Amino acid sequence: MKSENKPTTCPWCGSHRIAIVLGGMPVYIPEMERELDNGEAQIVDGSGSTSDPTWQCTECGAQFFRELCSAHSDDDDRFGGK
């Protein structure tokens, strides 16, 4: 599933426990440990690229991807494009 914002509920199981996904080996800080313990964040084996999920349901494991905003034609005009 793609979304611009963090989902509030999982469309598959209905859980409200949606965690941000951190790829690789993040630096340890106490706030992160609290978020990991509370299920607000999860560390996955990934590169942190745009092909990796942004959020994950901690109940069923469903993964969600950030949908990138598309450029608007107004921006092209402002920056000398088109």
Core attributes:
82 residues; alpha/beta; five-stranded mixed sheet; 2 helices; 23% strand; disordered C terminus
Q: Can you describe this structure?
A:
This protein has helices at 30-37, 73-78, and strands at 2-3, 18-23, 41-44, 55-57, 63-66. The protein is of the alpha/beta class and 82 residues long. The protein has one domain (2-75). Strands 1-5-4-2-3 form a five-stranded mixed β-sheet. Mean pLDDT is 75; it is low at 70-82.
What is the gist of this entry?
The protein has 82 residues and is α/β, with parallel strands linked by helices. Helix content is 17%, strand content 23%. It has one domain (2-75).
Lay out the secondary structure.
Blueprint: E1 2-3, E2 18-23, H1 30-37, E3 41-44, E4 55-57, E5 63-66, H2 73-78
Parallel strand pairs: 1-5, 2-3
Antiparallel strand pairs: 2-4, 4-5
Counted by DSSP, the helix tally is 2
End-to-end separation: 32 Å
The ordered H/E elements are EEHEEEH
Radius of gyration: 16 Å
The portion of residues forming beta strands comes to 15-25%
List unreliable stretches of 5+ residues.
70-82
What is the number of E strands? 5
Kindly report the spatial arrangement of strands forming the biggest sheet.
1-5-4-2-3
Report the helical percentage: 10-25%
Residue-averaged pLDDT: 75
Structural class: alpha/beta
User: Shape from CA axes?
Assistant: globular
Q: How many separate domains make up the residues?
A: 1
Largest beta-sheet characterization: 5 strands, mixed
